Amino acid sequence: MSDRLEAILADGVPRVCSAAVALIAVDGSVAASAATGELVRYADAEGTLAADRPPAGRDSVFDLASISKLFTTAVVLSLVEEGRLDLDEPVAAWLQDSDPRVTLRHLLTHTAGLQPTRRIDLELPDADPATRMAAMIGTPVTGPIGGPYLYTDVGMVMVGRIAELAGGAPLDALVGDRVTGVLGLADTGYRPGPATLPRVAATEWKPERQGATDATSEHRETVAGWTPEPQVPGCVRGEVHDETAYGLGGVAGHAGVFATADDLLAFGETLRLDGGGLLRPETAAEMLRDQGAEGAAFRHGLGVRIGDPAIVGPLGAAAFGHSGFTGTSLVVDPARGLTVVLLTNAVHPVRGRDGIRGLRHAVAAEALRLAD
Fold it and tell me: What are phi and psi of 262, to 5 degrees?
């Protein structure tokens, strides 16, 4: 444990989030760790305290939200290494309804001219995940192709589907075979099972999900022994927070991965160490290279942000990583040998709470102190 890191998290809990876990590794060794708060603090959007408030621990499991994009990217790049995909071929070779000018590189750098998001669950409320996915793939290009940068979940949903077609398996299976299985990340994956649920942090109050069972899809058939659990009144827990990913069956290229801090740290260390057996060094270098996307407050690699001021804080322009809407972040600073993980549930019980950027910066500042 780190008293300083513990104090930083305590300053943000429950003001910013009800639960937080942070890990800081220097040259591959954990230099500081802290966990505080409650996995479920609230029973409704009004802030009524839950009757059962289990404490957060280092082994707690959080919805990573958009950090999932890095796992999708790793899968795609492994398929590129095998010659099954080409970063610069038209994605229409795989997705027939797509604009023939758009490439996989465009999608991974958010320069395909696609809209930021699409609430396919609201557009097609009675459709199954396969029908919704087909509609997502058919999303028209409405902006310039090649830039400027426009962050889009739609594009990463397409990337996930391309991975499935090229890899010959559902995305969750590909992530399991090509990322979590390779790295031994036992607590990372989509749709946590019943045995994991007691360790999962709750997210947002979503009354529209009450009384419903989780959406079924073709992906479900790949999970041995999985049985849909009925939802009970309360905040979302154990299923993906993101509405689009939920509408697609819980597995999508842009969101849906859950993990512990230690697992995410191991994934980040792999990227810090030039692919670390997950990807070839030259592939990892291309992932982390500035791809020249213009119009963002940071530089962009393939699926990864470089120098994003929202998460790197004082670590500066060379640090890379990604954040998640639920309040998560992964930051890697290769020059200093740093990997920094912050997992929170800042959308519990409602989104829009202030302070997550400051909390991220405070943890990054502590990492900088430990590295000096």
Answer: -65, -40
Q: What is the pTM of this model?
A: 0.94
Residue 57: Cβ-neighbour burial (10 angstroms; 0-12, 13-18, 19+): middle
Question: Tell me, what's the pLDDT at 97?
Answer: 83
pLDDT at 16 over 60: yes
Q: How far apart are CA 162 and CA 156, in angstroms?
A: 10
Burial class (CB in 10 A: 0-12, 13-18, 19+), 9: buried
pLDDT at 53 over 80: yes
Sequence-ordered list of residues with C-beta below 8 angstroms from that of 82, at least 6 positions apart, any chain = none
CA distance 72 to 302: 11
In which band, very low, low, confident or very high, does the pLDDT at 1 lie, cut at 50, 70 and 90?
A: low
- Burial class of 286 by CB neighbour count within 10 A (0 to 12, 13 to 18, 19+): middle
pLDDT higher than threshold 50 for residue 183: yes
